[in-house]
Amino acid sequence: MPSPHRVVVIAAPPVSMFNIAVPEMLFGKVLIDGEPGYETVFCAPDPGPVRTSNGVDVHIPGGLDVIRTADTVIIAGAGSREEADPRILAALRRAAADGRRIASICTGAFALAEAGLLDGRAATTYWRYTGELGARYPAIDLQKDVLFVQDGPVLTSSGYAAGIDLCLHLVRSDFGAAVANDVARLALVAPVRQGGQTQFTDTPLPPESGVSFACTRAWVMQHLDEPLTLTDLARNAGVSIRTLSRRFHAETGLSPLQWLLHQRVERARELLETTALPMDQVARASGLGSADSMRQHIQRRLGVTPSAYRASFSRVAAVTGSTPARPRAHV
Questions:
Q1: Which distant-in-sequence residues (6+ apart) come within 8 Å of 271 by Cβ?
Q2: Residues of the chain with pLDDT under 70
Q3: Which candidate, 329, 234, 331, 319, places its Cα nearest to that of 33?
Q4: What residues have CB less than 8 Å from 121, skipping those under 6 apart?
Q5: Is residue 264 part of a domain?
Q6: Tens of pLDDT along 170-223?
Q7: What are the phi and psi torsion angles at 84 (to 5°)?
């Protein structure tokens, strides 16, 4: 049995307790054939009690030397954006040189930037600090209004809940959509929020009728194989198409049709992973029309063909009792 993918989380004081809890919570729920998919360990420049941003100490057992054993390195956001510890910067540069996958949550991006790992790369951070990050590190291709962004082996996320989205994206990259969606269900969080979705929306007060489209989104998920239109969605929600488009974007950061396409691609990914259905049946069941149409959408979104994706992530052999190839982690 292959060893679990090792994630090393750097806790740079004063670290956010939420930002170090998210990786352990999500990665700890990943099981592949009944075995842990990840091993999550924590480290700090000075092992032992580490001060958090709310003044409570947490015990971090490992020193930065454990980064040498990592497959993925995550630096958690901290209350301070100044004077990154030179030992952390050196460890991050060494990890990058060794080919590790490196990610940051929230203001952890400032340490990656100071280490020079974001120069020429697309990156983001918590929306309150994107201006500061861009001003201090002009070589970054700053993405001001996204949840997370991946540029090669380096990933950065916005703050708080966007760290959940980033970790689920890593799970999806390593083990496929079905595993990531299972983890999201266990954690009671949204299974898919695109990295390009807006961090926040300056939304006006809702009308007196209190329009919300959660029920319409749930209805759509039960009818993905049908040729849904904006008119269908608006009729289900009981509003005009104009109101649907405006309020849907305010709630999700996406237009209704963008959101619908994304859900259909995710459904196709799950079916490719968990069934042996022919390509044309997968396309119809996910609402993507023909096998050719599905191939175009999946290749545009994932960079691989449906057949190549199935070859990498299919779990059908595990279900039927034979031994599948373990999906390789993206590093």
A1: 277, 282, 285, 286
A2: 1, 78-80, 190-211, 317-331
A3: 319
A4: 140, 141, 151, 152, 154
A5: yes
A6: 999 999 888 998 898 888 776 656 555 444 433 333 333 345 788 999 999 999
A7: -60, 140
Number of folded domains that form the chain: 2
Q: Is residue 231 part of a domain?
A: yes
Q: Are 133 and 110 in contact (CB under 8 A)?
A: yes
Considering the domain boundaries, does residue 196 fall inside one? no
* Phi, psi dihedrals of residue 283, rounded to the nearest 5°: -60, -45
- Domain-terminating residue out of 140, 156, 187: 187
| Tokens at 17, concatenated | 């307790």
Q: How far apart are CA 148 and CA 211, in angstroms?
A: 28
Q: pTM to 2 decimals?
A: 0.72
The answer to whether residue 302 sits within a structural domain is yes
Q: Kindly give the residue spans of alpha helices, DSSP state H, lying in the chain.
A: 17-27, 86-97, 109-114, 130-136, 162-175, 177-187, 214-221, 230-237, 241-252, 256-274, 279-285, 291-302, 306-313, 316-320
C-alpha radius of gyration, the chain, whole number:
21
